[in-house]
């Protein structure tokens, strides 16, 4: 089975801290994604990457950056955490050309910024 | 991304009842998908639809890709307590998926 692993299930950080959320997949997928999930707003795309060192902005990239130095790892960075970034963060990966059947999610990281 | 309008926002039903939810958009899509998210987990794919008019079943779940390619629905028959969760529609837009806001389903025994 494809596995997408997010390093932390729960995180509590202080306002202004630099926060790293890590995601690792073990199936050699080219595409990786970061979404945030908020009640009543569904899943919103922050950033995605279709290859090592490549990144594209999603719908809500402000306040975030990403890093993809290796194919299996996609990091989401909150440069200076703010309380409105308290959310559930979901990482996903997929194989290009195989359609959404290849879209696999991690279990999520619930981040609280205080 | 293009907006997907999912309804209802929540449903509270009794075990054994049938459930229906739908998703509409002003944009045309080539793929519609339905995901379920259990509490504390990431979404898991239930059904994928690739052709306008397509009707696909997965056990007690049935989904259809609207003929206009702008909508889709999901039906769950004879609901059971483990159907509890959040159901999301999604549509493929280039590299990434757009998601609806979700339908929260509660089932009482």
Q: Which structural traits does this protein have?
A:
heterodimer; A: 114 residues; mainly beta; 4-stranded antiparallel sheet; 11 strands; B: 109 residues; 6-stranded mixed sheet; 5-stranded antiparallel sheet; 55% strand
Describe the structure.
The complex is a heterodimer of chains A (114) and B (109). Chain A is mainly β. In chain A, 0% of the residues lie in helices and 53% in strands. Chain A has strands at residues 4-6, 10-13, 19-25, 31-38, 42-49, 56-57, 64-70, 73-78, 87-94, 104-105, 109-113. In chain A, strand 5 and strand 6 (56-57) form a beta hairpin. The mean pLDDT of chain A is 92. In chain B, the strands form 2 sheets. In chain B, strands 2, 4, 5, 9, 10 and 11 form a 6-stranded mixed beta sheet that branches. In chain B, strands 1-3-8-7-6 form a 5-stranded antiparallel beta sheet, with no helix packed on it. The model of chain B has no long low-confidence stretch (mean pLDDT 93). Chains A and B meet through strand 4 and strand 5 of A and strand 5, strand 9 and strand 10 of B.
Topology:
The complex is a heterodimer of chains A (114) and B (109).
Chain A lengths: L3 E3 L3 E4 L5 E7 L5 E8 L3 E8 L6 E2 L6 E7 L2 E6 L8 E8 L9 E2 L3 E5 L1
Parallel strand pairs in A: 2-11
Antiparallel strand pairs in A: 1-3, 3-8, 4-5, 4-9, 5-6, 7-8, 9-10, 9-11
Chain B lengths: L4 E3 L2 E5 L4 E6 L7 E6 L6 E6 L5 E4 L2 E5 L5 E6 L8 E9 L2 E4 L3 E6 L1
Parallel strand pairs in B: 2-11
Antiparallel strand pairs in B: 1-3, 3-8, 4-5, 4-9, 6-7, 7-8, 9-10, 9-11
Query: Cα distance, first to last residue of chain B?
Result: 38 Å
Range of helix content of chain B: under 10%
User: What is the total tally of β strands of chain B?
Assistant: 11
pLDDT averaged over residues of chain B: 93
Give me the oligomer status: heterodimer
Rg of chain A is: 13 Å
Helix-strand category of chain A: mainly beta
Please indicate the percent range of residues of chain B in DSSP E strands (runs of 2 or more).
over 45%
Gross morphology of chain B:
globular
- Describe the biggest sheet of chain B? 6 strands, mixed
Individual helix count of chain A: 0
């Amino acid at each position: 089975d494809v596995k997408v692993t997010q390093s932390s299930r729960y995180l509590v950080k202080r306002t202004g801290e630099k926060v790293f959320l890590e995601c690792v997949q073990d199936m050699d997928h080219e595409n990786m994604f970061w979404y945030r999930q908020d009640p009543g707003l569904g899943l919103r795309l922050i950033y995605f990457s279709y290859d090592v060192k490549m990144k594209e902005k999603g719908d809500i990239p402000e306040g975030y950056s990403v890093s993809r130095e290796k194919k299996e790892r996609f990091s989401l960075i909150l440069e200076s955490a703010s309380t409105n970034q308290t959310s559930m963060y979901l990482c996903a990966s997929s194989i290009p050309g195989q359609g959404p059947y290849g879209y696999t999610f991690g279990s999520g990281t619930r981040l609280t910024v205080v | 991304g293009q907006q997907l309008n999912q309804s209802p926002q929540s449903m509270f039903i009794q075990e054994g009842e049938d459930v229906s939810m739908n998703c509409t958009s002003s944009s045309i899509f080539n793929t519609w998908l339905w995901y379920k998210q259990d509490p504390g987990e990431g979404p898991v794919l239930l059904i994928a639809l690739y052709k306008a008019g397509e009707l696909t079943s997965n056990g007690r779940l049935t989904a259809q890709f609207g003929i206009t390619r702008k909508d889709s629905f999901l039906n769950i028959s004879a609901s059971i307590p483990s159907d509890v969760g959040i159901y999301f529609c999604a549509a493929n837009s280039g590299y990434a998926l757009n998601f609806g806001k979700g339908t929260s389903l509660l089932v009482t025994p």
